[in-house]
Amino acid sequence: xxxxxxxxxxxxxxxxxxxxxxxxxxxxxxxxxxxxxxxxxxxxxxxxxxxxxxxxxxxxxxxxxxxxxxxxxxxxxxxxx
Length: 81
Fold this sequence. Notes:
Radius of gyration: 13 Å
Strand content: under 5%
Largest sheet: none
Order of helices and strands: HHHH
Number of domains: 1
Structural class: mainly alpha
Distance between the termini: 12 Å
């Protein structure tokens, strides 16, 4: 079974549907058993939907990468595992 850190490292690609079938299976198995990662996944998915649906602003790719890296760093520090 993968760890929370490994799940967090793959979360972005998983949300974009850009992971291999075996990795997807492992991530979904982890999600089925880890409440913390379930909350992170659900919150992230909902946030992306809200921001995407609002269409209120466009963030340059470089800035988006920095924001994503900072969020993921914070999540990794807080996640057990």
